[in-house]
Amino acid sequence: MAAECIFCKAQTELYVNGVPICIKCSDARTKRKPPTRETAILRILHRDLDVVTERASAAAATFDAVTSEIPSGFPHPDGTQRIHNASRAMSQARIGLMIAHNRLNDFLSRGVVPDDLKLG
């Protein structure tokens, strides 16, 4: 039984989920659209967030390892410097994580594209 395509009103016998649709309109709707600039920016921001999250986790694990090597609670002079270095690395990683979160949040909530991702 022929029916009219819901989109272009052409005669069709094809039904998708009980809705008449011609082959031309069905093909047009099932083809993937190329990624938009917005999609590309979002992908980059998510990737950046993943990278800094991994870096922050590694820095925290290093800090925990360094501080757990002090059984008496009183580190020797080299141990103090190692703790200081691990603490600094963890702080920098957390700052990077905060920046990445803010960039993604600004893009998602207000559409603000970071300067380094804007087209020239």
Summarize the structure in short.
Helix content is 62%, strand content 7%. It is mainly alpha-helical and 120 residues long.
Report on the architecture of this protein.
This protein is mainly alpha-helical and 120 residues long. The chain has two domains: 31 residues; 81 residues. It is built from three helices and four strands; from the N terminus they run E-E-E-E-H-H-H. The model has no long low-confidence stretch (mean pLDDT 86).
Question: Which SSEs are present, and which pair or pack?
Answer:
Layout: E1 3-4, E2 11-12, E3 15-16, E4 19-20, H1 23-30, H2 37-68, H3 77-110
Antiparallel strand pairs: 1-2, 3-4
Helix pairs in contact: 2-3
Task: Give keywords.
2 domains, mainly alpha, two-stranded antiparallel sheet, 120 residues
